[in-house]
Specification:
Elements (H helix, E strand, L loop, with lengths): L1 H14 L1 H11 L60 H14 L5 H17 L5 H19 L1 H28 L3
Helix pairs in contact: 1-4, 1-6, 2-6, 4-5, 4-6, 5-6
Length: 179
């Protein structure tokens, strides 16, 4: 019976934590992310980004860089043009804009694994293991966090929300089930 409750706690911490984190991202949007008179910072007409998406776009990167010849907008299929016929400067610019525009990829999967690890650490009575999870996650994202302030803010909000959710589920399970 204890294995059933432990499994249920892990699944709740891991998978129900995603909508909770998404809600916190919506609530935590800064004034810079909100629209001002129908125009957002990058000039797009009041389009809301999905706060739970696996990628974030730094608002300081102009959207026009993604529309260079031979490249497709983010999320669209790339143009089928031979790279050998394109201007090398255009290719370098396109590669730089794509690599700097898409950040924090894989965050949803990492978040689920993080919540599993935190919940398991609390249920096992080893809260020190949470420090290892934070260290591994921070080291893995260090380059992106250092280069992009938007990514750093999103990382902190998402990590704290995920960890608090997972620790709360584990603590509640431990109190109610394991006494």
């Amino acid at each position: 019976m204890n294995a059933l409750w432990t499994t249920l706690a892990l699944l709740t911490a891991g998978f129900v934590g995603w909508p909770v984190t998404s809600l916190v991202f919506r609530l935590a949007r800064t004034i810079d992310d909100r629209t001002f008179d129908g125009q957002s910072i990058d000039g797009s007409a009041g389009e809301d980004e999905d706060p739970s998406a696996d990628s974030t776009t730094d608002p300081e990167i102009p959207a026009a860089a993604d529309a260079s010849p031979g490249t497709a907008p983010q999320g669209a299929e790339p143009a089928t043009q031979d790279p050998a016929t394109q201007d090398p400067a255009t290719l370098d610019q396109a590669a730089g804009s794509v690599s700097s525009a898409r950040i924090l990829r894989g965050g949803a999967i990492i978040g689920v694994l993080e919540r599993f690890a935190v919940c398991l650490a609390v249920l096992a009575g080893q809260p020190v293991a949470i420090a290892y999870v934070v260290a591994i996650k921070g080291l893995g994202r260090f380059a992106e966090l250092k280069a992009t302030p938007v990514a750093a803010e999103r990382f902190i909000i998402g990590t704290l929300t995920s960890m608090l959710w997972a620790a709360g589920v584990a603590a509640l399970t431990k109190v109610l089930v394991f006494g």
